[in-house]
């Protein structure tokens, strides 16, 4: 693994490095209705009259004709029989060494046959406790019960962010562009402050990963309680000229180990503060974040609150998973998720960055994680996720406005999704 040369950049450069504009036209497909003629000799029946009227939500931009949750999706496999029988050809037997001695009553090894995932226990280096092993293995065994996976885009789908910075949201909805852009810039500044200060973005910017566990195999499990990251000599840039030879060659074993340490600490911080990002901030910053989030919700007419209704409904289902795939680099994406209060909805292992490999490749990784018998639903606003969904024969739900978010929640409530 190598990293490109580090180029110092000012805070004004952050926007262009994180986000790419999406200059595409939304193409809405409208299903063709067919009129069925009666068979010869078939009597004409009068249409049944509904005893009690009901109100249909007006959906002018998009027509959805999705089957119910328990039914089949077009081109998708049945939902029954999803739990596969373990076999050596389809599953990996992972052995976790707990470090217990044979004199102790509890067994020193646990072997489970579970579906292979991106997160793996390394039998050679694992030094966790029995409880930690069982917790990890239990969480992975839950993959067997997952029937439906929702793949979410972040910007302009769950939150409004990129279009705040460009002013396009203000133009589309008739908002004051000065206030809108100012709010976007304030949030962007806070995202990078958290990423730099708490999540090692200065070290990891040039060493971006798709998933938090991508370098976990290089972690030797060393206790990091008293580890000093600021003095270990690690450099994430392409230049190591100012460091001693003890740093190690970039991409070498020592360098990769220190990289893995940083991603391990990022995971620990995310897990600790995912429901309380204010704990990372000073009292002044906490208050500023609360005001900023409130202001953005007002400016965007409660966009995030509307999206959260669907996310939380999916989260409440035992057989469904929310997965986030974003074109933002992984570390600032984690900071963004924390600051927008989405940490409880998206565990860190369910967040993927498509910056390096694109969304289609991310979809492939997720399919390999959950299996091909699971039904996948893609929710986003961009052409890239729509194309990726089509390539994998996944249903795509387009988000272009508030009405699409409301319709999504209604479809979930009615078990159409």
TrEMBL record:
Cofactor binding, per record: Binds 1 Mg(2+) ion per subunit.
InterPro entries: EYA (IPR028472), EYA_dom (IPR006545), EYA_dom_metazoan (IPR042577), EYA_dom_sf (IPR038102)
Gene Ontology BP term (one): cell differentiation
Gene3D superfamilies per UniProt: 3.40.50.12350
Reactions this protein catalyses: O-phospho-L-tyrosyl-[protein] + H2O = L-tyrosyl-[protein] + phosphate
GO cellular component, one term: cytoplasm
Enzyme Commission number(s) from the entry: 3.1.3.48
GO molecular function terms noted in the UniProt entry: metal ion binding; protein tyrosine phosphatase activity
Active site positions, chain numbering: 153 (nucleophile), 155 (proton donor)
Record flagged with keyword rRNA-binding: no
Enzyme class of the recorded protein, top EC level: hydrolase
Keyword Metal-binding belongs to the record: yes
Binding positions for Mg(2+) per the UniProt entry: 153, 155, 381
Residue intervals passing through the bilayer: none
Main location: cytoplasm
CDD domains to which the protein is assigned, alphabetical: HAD_Eya
Keywords on record: Activator, Chromatin regulator, Cytoplasm, Developmental protein, DNA damage, DNA repair, Hydrolase, Magnesium, Metal-binding, Nucleus, Phosphoprotein, Protein phosphatase, Transcription, Transcription regulation
Origin: domain of life: Eukaryota
Compartments, as annotated in UniProt: Cytoplasm; Nucleus
Cofactor field: Mg(2+)
Family membership noted in the UniProt record: Belongs to the HAD-like hydrolase superfamily. EYA family.
Protein name: Eyes absent homolog
Organism the protein comes from: Melopsittacus undulatus (Budgerigar)
């Amino acid at each position: 693994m190598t990293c490109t040369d580090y180029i110092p950049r000012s805070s004004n450069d952050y926007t262009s490095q994180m986000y790419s504009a999406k200059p595409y036209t939304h193409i809405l497909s409208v299903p063709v209705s067919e009129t069925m003629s009666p068979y010869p000799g078939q009597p004409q029946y009068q249409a049944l009259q509904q005893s009690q009227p009901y109100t249909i939500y007006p959906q002018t931009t998009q027509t959805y004709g999705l089957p119910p949750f328990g039914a089949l999706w077009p081109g998708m496999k049945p939902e029954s029989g999803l739990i596969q029988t373990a076999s050596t050809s389809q599953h990996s037997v992972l052995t976790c060494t707990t470090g217990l001695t044979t004199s102790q009553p509890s067994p020193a090894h646990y072997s489970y046959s579970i579906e292979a995932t991106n997160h793996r226990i390394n039998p050679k280096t694992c030094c966790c406790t029995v409880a930690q092993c069982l917790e990890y293995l239990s969480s992975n065994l839950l993959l067997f019960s997952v029937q439906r996976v929702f793949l979410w885009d972040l910007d302009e789908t769950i939150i409004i962010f990129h279009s705040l910075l460009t002013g396009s949201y203000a133009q589309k909805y008739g908002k004051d562009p000065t206030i809108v852009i100012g709010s976007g810039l304030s949030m962007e500044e806070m995202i990078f402050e958290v990423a730099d200060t708490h999540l090692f973005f200065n070290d990891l910017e040039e060493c971006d990963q798709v998933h938090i566990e991508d370098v976990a195999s290089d972690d030797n499990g060393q206790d990091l309680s008293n580890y000093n990251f600021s003095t270990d000599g690690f450099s994430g840039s392409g230049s190591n000229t100012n460091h001693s030879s003890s740093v190690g060659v970039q991409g070498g074993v020592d360098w990769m180990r220190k990289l893995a340490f940083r991603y391990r600490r990022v995971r620990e911080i995310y897990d600790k503060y995912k429901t309380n990002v204010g704990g990372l901030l000073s009292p002044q910053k906490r208050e500023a974040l609360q005001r900023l989030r409130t202001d953005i919700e007002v400016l965007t007419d409660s966009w995030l609150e509307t999206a959260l209704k669907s996310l939380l409904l999916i989260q409440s289902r035992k057989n469904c998973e929310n997965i986030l795939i974003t074109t933002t680099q992984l570390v600032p994406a984690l900071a963004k998720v924390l600051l927008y209060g989405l940490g409880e909805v998206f565990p860190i292992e369910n967040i993927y960055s498509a910056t390096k490999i694109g969304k289609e490749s991310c979809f492939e990784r997720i399919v390999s994680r959950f299996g091909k018998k699971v039904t996948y639903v893609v929710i986003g606003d961009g052409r890239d996720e729509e194309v990726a969904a089509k390539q994998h024969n996944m249903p795509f739900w387009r988000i272009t406005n508030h009405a699409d978010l409301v319709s999504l929640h209604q479809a979930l409530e009615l078990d159409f999704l």
